C-alpha cells in the first residue's frame, strides 16, 4: 500500500530558517548525504540505469558547483541525480516548503503552459488570457529558451516519459522561479505567425500557476457535479489524508446520485498523483461488491534509516523492524479480498467510468490497476503515469545544509495481476487522447465521449 504523495509533501506545512545560499563545501556535503541515503534505503537505484552513469552524474554535479549556490537552484540540480535513477518517487519534493515565504508573493511567471510532442510550449490561457493569447508559442523568458528548459526539466523527473513531460510542463513557472527567473519578465512569443516581445512587470502568486494542475495543493482534493443531468462527475484529485472526509464526500455524492436516479458515474483521476490507497478502497465500496486487489505486495529494502523513522513515528510493532538490515523483505499475496467497505444506503449499480491520464500516479495508479484487472469499471482516457509494478514507500528526509526535502523509494510494489515481470502502465479500455490544442481550447474529449454515450 502506497500511503504518501510522491514528492508533493510538506506543502505550506511548516516554516524553517534556511540560508538563501550555501557554500560549495556545504552543497557537496548534502549531495554526498543524498547519495549515501539512496544507496542505503532504495530497493534498487540501478534497476533502470547503471551505477557508472549514476556516479558520473553525481561527480559531474559536484565538479560544476560554484563557490556558493542558491538553495533554490540546488533543488533543480539535485533533480539531475534523482532523475537518472528513473524512479519518480525518488526526488526532491516538487514544492519545497523552505521557500514558502515567496509562495504568496507575486514573483512567479503569470503563465501556465501546455506542450506539443515536439517539445514546444504554449500558453494555455488559463492564467494569462489578458496578458498573452491562449495558444501563443512561448519562445523565451528573460532570455531562457522555454523549449530547452522544458526538455531539461523533464530529465529531472523519473518515471515514464509521459509523466515526466506532464510534471515538467505543469511545473514550468515554479521551476523557472527556482532557476532564478524573477519579475519583470521579458517574454518572447509567436502568435498568428508574428513574433512579439511582451514585458510583464508583475508576477503571480504560486497558487495561481499550479492550482489547475495540482488542485489538491490549493485545498481542492475533490469535486462533484452532474453533467447534462445524466452523468455524475466525481473529480478525485488526491487520495492523501485521513479517510473520514473522503467517506463523507463519497457518501454525499452517491446519495445525490441515487436521489436523482443517475445511471452513469465518471470518476476522474487525471490529476490524482496518489496518497492513501485506503481511500480508494472506500470509494470502491460505493459501486463494487466483487473481490479484488489493488496491489499484490512488494519487495522492500530493509535499512536502519527506515527503522529509525518507524520508531520515531511510534510504530514499534512493525514487522519491518524485525527484518535484517540490507536484506529484501518480500511481501506477496495473489488472493483477492472482499471489499473493505460497502455502502448499503447509497450503493450504485449503474455504469461506472474511470478516467485516467499521464498524471494518474502512485496510489491512484494502483486504484486504476485494480479496477482494470478485476473489471470493476470501464477505463477511459490515456494511459497512467507509471507502470503497474513500480517503486514506492518513500523515506523522507531533509538535507542538513540546504534544508531541501527529498523522498527516496524503499520498495518495488507489485501490480494487481500478481506478475512481477509486468512492465507497462494501466492502459484504458477506450483510449482517448486530450491534445495540447484541446487543452488550449478548453475541450475535454473524454467527458464529451462519456456524455455522448449517455445522452
TrEMBL record:
Domain Tail specific protease per the UniProt entry, residue ranges: 248-413
Protein name, entry field: Tail specific protease domain-containing protein
Keyword Signal in annotation: yes
SUPFAM superfamilies found in the cross-reference section: ClpP/crotonase
Signal sequence annotation: 1-19
Domain of life: Bacteria
Keyword entries, A-Z: Signal
